Amino acid sequence: MDERVSSDALPLQAEDGHRWQLLARIPAQPQAALLWMPALGVAAKHYLPFADALAARGTAVFVHEWRGNGSSILRPGRASDWGYRELLIHDLPCSEAAIAARLPRLDLTFGGHSLGGQLACCRLALAPNVAQHLWLVASGAPYWRAFPAPVRYGLPLAYRFLPWLADRLGRLPGRRLGFGGEESRGLIGDWARSALSGRYAAAGIGIDIEAALGALSVDVHAVVMENDWLAPASSVRFLLSKMRHSRATVTLLGDHALQARADHFSWMQQPAALAELLTR
């Protein structure tokens, strides 16, 4: 890592006692700040190569940690459950406050991968003045009708089976299934409802998230990976359509431009081209 970039792990605690570390890569003279939100089941540390690439280009990067992953003190189970509410209302505001305290004069960009991008949209809809820009990487809505045939035909069954299994076992054993990590029942329930209905909502949040997304006005840069069946261009367009007052730029990245296979996860191993694109 460039010696002019500082490496930090900021200890944070939410109002309900949840503790985790906010990973940071901060250049000596940052020109911008990014709060990055991981994909489902992916620990924050796996985005450090991406953070390093962005920091080398002048962006201070703070990688959030979802409950149940990495440095989080929680793990899902019968006695430990959470959903979108806890992530959006308790945890993310703590990370936002830590960034504001560290770099109070810099504009903030929200960014996210997969589910992280979706939750970045939802958080910004709930708190529209927190960030000035939004980056979505391999991140589309999971709504089954937004997927091309024949993939979409089997999705409703999967979207009903996964929350059923999570309820039965007390958590979703995602690593054994090849989907996400060990996930909480509430999180999978909120995710599956949006996947079946096409609408974002969260148990325990009284605000109409769909209406808030419709009122949001922000500059969005969405990057679609050419070989990404988990977030195809159609699902990205559906997500962007919810933010009808926002200004969106969509970039399709192929293998040659990325210098890696342009799929849902491979870009994380060689993120330099993506970092250059986003900070151009």
TrEMBL record:
Residues 29-166 form the Serine aminopeptidase S33 domain. The keyword Ribosomal protein does not apply. Keywords: Aminopeptidase, Hydrolase, Protease. GO terms for molecular function: aminopeptidase activity. It holds the Pfam family Hydrolase_4. This is Serine aminopeptidase domain-containing protein.
